C-alpha cells in the first residue's frame, strides 16, 4: 500500500500514530498519539478542525466490487473522535460536528449525517443512515434527536495546538500554498 500523507498547515499530527494510504489532514485538525488511520479502500480526506484522540481507529474499507477510481471517504469539519472509538466505512461521507464517544463503533454500512452523537460503547453494525442531529446512547442503542447543536471545539483545539508540541513529537506540514506560476509573475506583454 503506497503512503501519500498530506498534512495541511495548522494541523497538529503526532509522530506516534499510524497513517497508511492516501490521507489528507485539514488545517486545525489535531491527531493524538496512538491513532490509526488506514485508507485501504481509497483516499481519506479529513476536513479542518477535527479532533482524533488516542487509540481511535478510522479505516476506509475495501469494497468487494472495487471502483475505478476509488471513492474517497470524506470526514467533515469539527468532528470529534474520542478515545478508543472505531469507524470502519465503505461510505463516501461523514457529516460535520459529530461526536464519536469513547469506545464507540461505527460499522461499514452506516452513514452519518451532521451534528450526531454516537454514545460511549455504542456499536452500530446494521446498515442504516443517521439523519442530522441524531443521538445514540445506552446499552439498548436508543436514539433521539439532539435538543441543541454540538458545542464548538475551537477552544480545545487551540489549547491542544499549543500544548501538544511541548510533550509529543509532531509530523510537519507538507502541503504549502501553491507558489505563483512563473507566467503570472512575468509582466504582461502589450
Automatic annotation (TrEMBL):
Annotated coiled-coil segments of the chain: none
GO biological process, one term: mitotic spindle organization
Main localization category: cytoplasm
GO MF annotations in UniProt: dynein complex binding
GO CC aspect terms: dynactin complex
Biased composition (Polar residues): 181-190
Residue ranges of the TM segments: none
CDD domains: LbH_Dynactin_6
Basic residues biased stretches: 171-180
Signal peptide: none
Positions of the UniProt region annotated as Disordered: 171-190
Compartment(s): Cytoplasm, Cytoskeleton
Keyword line: Cytoplasm, Cytoskeleton
PANTHER family: DYNACTIN 6, DYNACTIN SUBUNIT 6
Family the entry assigns: Belongs to the dynactin subunits 5/6 family. Dynactin subunit 6 subfamily.
Function: Part of the dynactin complex that activates the molecular motor dynein for ultra-processive transport along microtubules.
Protein's UniProt name: Dynactin subunit 6
Biological source species: Papilio xuthus (Asian swallowtail butterfly)
Amino acid at each position: 500500500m503506497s503512503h501519500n500523507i498530506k498534512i495541511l498547515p495548522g494541523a497538529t499530527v503526532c509522530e506516534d500514530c499510524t497513517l497508511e494510504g492516501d490521507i489528507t489532514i485539514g488545517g486545525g485538525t489535531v491527531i493524538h498519539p496512538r491513532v490509526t488511520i488506514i485508507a485501504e479502500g481509497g483516499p481519506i480526506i479529513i476536513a479542518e478542525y477535527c479532533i482524533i484522540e488516542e487509540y481511535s481507529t478510522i479505516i476506509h474499507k475495501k469494497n468487494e466490487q472495487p471502483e475505478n477510481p476509488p471513492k474517497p471517504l470524506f470526514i467533515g469539519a469539527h468532528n470529534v473522535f474520542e478515545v478508543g472509538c472505531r469507524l470502519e466505512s465503505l461510505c463516501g461521507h461523514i457529516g460535520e460536528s459529530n461526536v464519536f464517544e469513547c469506545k464507540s463503533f461505527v460499522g461499514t454500512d452506516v452513514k452519518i449525517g451532521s451534528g450526531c452523537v454516537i454514545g460511549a460503547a455504542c456499536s452500530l453494525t446494521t446498515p442504516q443512515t443517521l439523519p442530522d442531529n441524531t443521538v445514540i446512547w445506552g446499552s439498548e442503542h436508543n436514539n433521539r434527536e439532539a435538543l441543541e447543536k454540538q458545542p464548538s471545539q475551537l477552544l480545545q483545539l487551540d489549547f491542544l495546538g499549543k500544548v501538544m508540541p511541548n510533550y509529543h513529537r509532531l509530523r510537519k506540514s507538507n502541503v504549502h500554498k501553491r507558489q505563483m506560476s512563473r507566467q503570472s509573475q512575468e509582466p504582461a506583454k502589450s
